[in-house]
Amino acid sequence: MAGTVNGQTLARLTLKSGREVAHGSLRDGTYRLTMRADKIRNAVARFLDGDGDGTGGGNFVDEFFRLFGDTDGDVDALDKQVFQAAYAKRKRDAGYLWYFDANANGRVWAEDLALFQLGYC
C-alpha cells in the first residue's frame, strides 16, 4: 500500500508469511531491508536515489532490529508503563494495543507478559 503525505510518498510493508514472520509481525532479531532502485520510480520515471549520491539507481539499505515490547528503541520502563496500561485488554476494549498481543489472539494476557519480560531491560 502506498500514498502521499505532505508531498512524501509512503509505502506500507505487510508481512504475511515466512520463517521470520509470526502473527503478521517480524520475530525478534536483526534485519536488513533493501529497496531496489531498479523497481522504484518517481512521478517523472526516474529511478530511486536510495544511496543519496544524487544519481538515480542506487539501492536504499536499512538495518534494524525488532524486539517484542519495544515501542521506542529499547524495552525499558516507558515500554513497561505502556504495556501495563494495555494488559488484560481485549481487541474490543479501549487501550488494547495490537503490538503487545504477541500471539494475535485478541487479548494482551499472561503469555504476552512473559514475552515482554524476556526482553525487558
Report on the structure:
There is one protein chain. The chain is of the alpha+beta class. It folds into two domains: 1-66, no CATH class; 71-121, Orthogonal Bundle (Type 1 dockerin domain), CATH 1.10.1330. Helix content is 17%, strand content 21%. The chain is built from two helices and six strands. The protein has helices at residues 77-86, 110-119; strands spanning 2-5, 8-11, 21-22, 25-26, 29-35, 60-66. The strands form three sheets. It has a two-stranded antiparallel ribbon. A two-stranded antiparallel ribbon has the order 3-4. A hairpin with a 2-residue loop joins strand 3 (21-22) and strand 4.
Main attributes of the structure:
2 helices; alpha+beta; two-stranded antiparallel ribbon; 121 residues; 2 domains; Type 1 dockerin domain; 6 strands
